[in-house]
């Protein structure tokens, strides 16, 4: 196996690069792309530099380790603010709003209707029809207080 690595070094890196980038197209997450780019750089450099396969593996590891955090840093700095920050966190987007209880809060548990959804609420006991303010979200349950 080591002989195969030593004999086909440059082409192995180029093939690995294509495979990693192909994986990125089927499982997007912009992680395999950078590993594929690291393999591509090592493969291209291997055409001009006669280095051992061990040095190539070390260069690939170093480039991979350097590229992923750099991309995370760059993508975080250039993230555009969204017009809907609670898109996948709907319960958090309800905090601060006031609603009418659909079912009374008895034993600390009741329900409130928000648009077309019934949410479980927890808080101090209150009769049906009371106005409550959502103070926090805990998963699919909302914590409320009387208004």
UniProtKB/TrEMBL annotation:
Compartment list: Membrane
Keyword Membrane attached: yes
InterPro entries according to UniProt: Membrane_assoc_protease (IPR052165), NA-bd_OB-fold (IPR012340), NfeD-like_C (IPR002810)
Residue intervals of the NfeD-like C-terminal domain: 91-145
Keyword entries, A-Z: Membrane, Transmembrane, Transmembrane helix
Superkingdom as given in the UniProt entry: Bacteria
Chain segments annotated as transmembrane: 57-74
Gene Ontology CC, one term: plasma membrane
Membrane topology according to the record: Multi-pass membrane protein
Main location: membrane
Keyword Transmembrane: yes
Name under which the protein is recorded: NfeD-like C-terminal domain-containing protein
Origin species: Afipia clevelandensis ATCC 49720
